[in-house]
Amino acid sequence: MKKYNLLSIILLGMTLSNCGDTKKGENTLFTFDITNFKEKYTQQDQLNLAINNSNSKTIDSIVYYVNDVKVGSKKGGDPILFELKDQKLGYQNLKALVYYGGENAEATSRVELVSNVKPKLLNYKIVNKYPHDTMSFTEGLEFHGDTLYESTGNPEGRKSYLRKYDYKTGKVYNQIDLDQKYFGEGVTILNDKIYQLTWQSKVGFIYDLKTFKKIKTFNFDKEIEGWGMTNDGKYIYQTDKTEKIWKMDPENQKMIDYINVYSGDSKIKSINELEWINGKIYTNVWQKDAIAVVNPTSGAVEGILDMSGLKKFIKNADADVLNGIAYNPKTKTIFVTGKNWDTLFEITVSE
After folding, report:
1. Full-model pTM
2. What tens digit of pLDDT does each residue of 53-71 get?
3. Which end of the chain is more exposed for a tag (fewer CB within 10 A), N or C?
């Protein structure tokens, strides 16, 4: 495996994927020929899909599928070459439907598609420091206009809340306290609505941006946890503690797609708070002093910000992990903080 030295250390905690993990067919009549399968593939590779016919059956045709999408068919038992350039990173589930003598049988396997992008180590410069409420267990952070919105969790019996405030002074303009049974998570603002997730309750809330009145409570349509949230102006993206970033239709709150986040050949789990910045997704990795910059189409980590230097400015002993990213398009600066931190940092980023 390739190793990216310092970058791997910064995101240490990157869960390494199982190498050469193939899933054998469920029948013994036909199986995928895995002798030519590579340990890992990238989007520049071709995949040789071929079938073992150990019982020497006369094959009429084979239909090949990747992730349940038909990718080709052949008369007889001939293989096909499949280009991986348009596939999402992560496991590719392979299936072959083999027709022979008026019958058919299925063979299955899988291969792993990883990133060939070497992440860039990014630099940051602190522009300003502002006070941050040390009672705020930050889960979501977002700008709208010049106003900061923050969603918090509720450890140690405190209530979660959604708050709108002046980031320069800390003055609270409006606040909604969640019922004690809910642990607040990520937040994002789209089309004059505020969307907020909860952690393990599998529900989210939608509020009117101007009045802060709750419009709707919605149920998750997947068996996932609610973590971070952001949007690209059309769709909402959210995380679930794994390597996945889900894509949601804001109109019906249904998940319509997802990507798997990889740094090189390593899967990055515990993707947390999200922010959409200039066409990329910036994300905290839970319990890591780093921010990963992710390509929202492929899932490849393209850049890494080592934020460990911020810890020396935090004075309160109860400060928890780095979490919270908000982009202010007016100032073109990024605001970051952490759970129960006493400081909100305004930074600029460069290569």
Report:
1. 0.89
2. 989 999 999 999 999 999 9
3. C
